[in-house]
Structure to design on (216 residues):
């Protein structure tokens, strides 16, 4: 009887903790997008957590661990009242965020470098007692390119309602520069052949010009 009572109390405590933290509700990968609106631009994975991303990455780090090897670095932090600059010099991005509707809005990220890059991104939002973290795995951004996206809150607070935006952190890891592919050997051979043909043609024209020049 005592064991059953302990189990019941444990179950009630767990239910209370879950209610206090809210729930995932209708949270899905299409709640955040970047670069377009169709499925190809939706986030690759998402996780619901009660961890505030301003304090820790533990709410999503374990879920997203298989997709990369580096540690997550804060690129930008946004509070409910406005932007909190936390730009990392390692990544060289600029960021904009709009939460005028409180439960949905837009965001952009700009590659400020002169190189095409690939990077793992996480848009980690917090609202009420829970939050959604959206992964953009191996996101490619061209040199000086700005990508625009949309976001919305679809998780629930402890009252079963969709809460208003509280804060957000954009995290990045595993950035690498994408270099233009080196020409294949066949391409080099074709280029050399073309240059040789141009040179022979120019030489022949010079000889012909000398041959027909009128003598004085």
């Amino acid at each position: 009887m005592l064991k059953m009572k302990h189990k019941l109390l444990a179950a009630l405590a767990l239910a209370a903790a879950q209610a206090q933290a809210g729930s995932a509700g209708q949270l899905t990968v299409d709640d955040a997008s970047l670069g377009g609106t169709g499925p190809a631009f939706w986030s690759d994975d998402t996780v619901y957590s009660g961890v505030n991303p301003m304090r820790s990455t533990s709410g999503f780090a374990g879920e997203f661990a298989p997709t990369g090897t580096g540690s997550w670095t804060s690129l930008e932090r946004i509070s409910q009242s406005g932007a909190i600059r936390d730009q990392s010099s390692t990544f060289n991005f600029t960021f904009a965020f709009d939460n005028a509707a409180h439960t949905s809005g837009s965001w952009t990220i700009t590659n400020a470098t002169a190189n095409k890059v690939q990077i793992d991104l996480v848009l980690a939002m917090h609202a009420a007692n829970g939050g959604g973290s959206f992964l953009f795995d191996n996101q490619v951004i061209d040199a000086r390119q700005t990508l625009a996206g949309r976001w919305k809150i679809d998780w629930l607070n402890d009252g079963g309602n969709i809460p208003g935006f509280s804060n957000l952190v954009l995290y990045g890891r595993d950035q690498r520069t994408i270099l233009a592919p080196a020409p294949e050997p066949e391409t080099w051979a074709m280029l050399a052949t073309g240059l040789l043909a141009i040179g022979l043609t120019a030489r022949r024209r010079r000889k012909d010009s000398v041959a027909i020049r009128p003598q004085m």
Remarks:
- The beta strands are 45-49, 73-79, 82-84, 93-98, 104-111, 117-127, 130-141, 146-152, 167-177.
- The longest strand covers residues 130-141.
